[in-house]
Amino acid sequence: MHYEGMIIRPPSEADSILLQVTVGCSHNKCTFCGTYKGERFKIKPDEIIMEDIGFAAKHCKNQDRVFICDGDALIVPQKKLLKYFREIEKQLPWVRRVGLYGNSKGISMKSSQELRQLRDHGLGIVYMGLESGDDLTLKAVNKGAGSEKMIEMGRKVKDAGIKMSVTVLLGLAGRQRSEEHARQTGRVLTAMDPDYVGALSLMLIPGTPLHADYEAGRFELPGATEMLSELRTMLAGTDLSDGLFHANHASNYLPIRARLPRDKKTTLRLIDDALAGRIALRPEFLRAL
Question: Has residue 22 been placed in a domain?
Fold first, then answer.
């Protein structure tokens, strides 16, 4: 397989065939993210992508999922992207699902009909980084879209019959807007009604603008109990029709996994126990991106 730069994928795609279609991120301006810094965004040549699909056909017969990298494959023109999906269908008939990252810009560039086309040829899940439902926080971290746009794009994917997984970041608003960040994120998640929510805890990355703000005293990173309080407020304000809310990423202080609405009350009690000191939190040295 031909890989360039840093390759990232969701934790749930750990066993997937990683097919890199784009390099980098077309937005690449979020203040907290250092993944693609210095990486110029591009769509890889067709011959390379087709060669990689051919490689997977020979060597990846035990993997039944494909994840298309990098940051925003939906920005690829529909005709070109559909060709890749059809080739996956042709050469990897055992693959049950294709997934990819989709930001608001990439989703907006696809019509509902085009999304359904991709669904019919294997697209089963889109991963979106919401990060926050608080518009002031989204603007501060230069996310590139407000909460209403995020809701609209999330619903667009869901309405096309594609599963939606949304990531949010605890601590992203700093100490000053912590409560509002949590409350508004719950509101947006409820409006989007994704199939999966993944809550991660912010870990500052040297070299990013947000880390520079932290070093200069312009950003206060919430502590462990403050992030846990954010998680409680966020979960309390999130109503999903039938979704999985999890915060079991290595960055989190308290791993939780809740099917909403069924497990909501039980999970809130678990968080309360942790806040009261009855459950130990993950120590700093065990946390990781």
Answer: yes
